[in-house]
Task: structure prediction
Amino acid sequence: MNTKTAIITGGSRGLGRDMALSLAKKGIDIIFSYHSNTNKAQEVIDEIKSIGQDAKAFPFDANDHTSGTAFIKSATSYLNEKNGNSNFDFLINNAGTGTFNMVANTSEDQFNEMMNVHLKSVYFMTQDAIPHLNDGGRIINISSGLARFSLPGMSAYAIMKGAIEVFTRYLAKELGGRKITANTVAPGAIATDFAGGSNKDEEKAKMIASITTLGRVGEAEDIGGVVAFLCSEDAGWVNGQRIEVSGGMLV
Result:
């Protein structure tokens, strides 16, 4: 049986790292992007290889959508050299960053960065990836609980995540003929380094716990298994869906 391959953006730390490891534990080879920290990327490669799966990393700057084209070209060229063809099975669009500003003082540059990182680069990198995605493959886009509930200061980020959820439904519709599914995973508040790591702050974590039915802030390990499930045979009939993974935040 041929080993399947997943391509993950932003796989060197945080949620992406856990997604990569969760998929590797399911016997899937991993290609992931990193922004600039080659040491962190190598750590993830070494950990995946210790599990027994192949891993490769290439740089990607999500603020420049043309970088996505270069990333996909690097990934598919590597696959062609390794396997004799450029195809892969799973695309997980995870890379991102955050900004915190009220609507009244969000600058155009801040807005454009959120649009580039979370919408434009995802749209066009997915476009570049689709010809190489095997029939029956999966696309998983990472959204946010903030596309459902609203917390002050996150409008520019949340708007783009809302757009990604619409984009995902269009992918499901347009790629259904190839039996490719597209779904969105929307994490709640997670204690990672994202947006300066504010969710690790003790006071903020207490606030998050108070509005979450399971009574704590989320961890990266809460997300990777859900992504791995969506890449499994068991999830083959799940399509065009938004799956929130927030522990019941603001239900």
Notes: The mean pLDDT is 95. Strands lie at 5-8, 29-34, 55-59, 88-93, 133-142, 181-187, 242-245. The two ends are 43 Å apart (CA to CA).
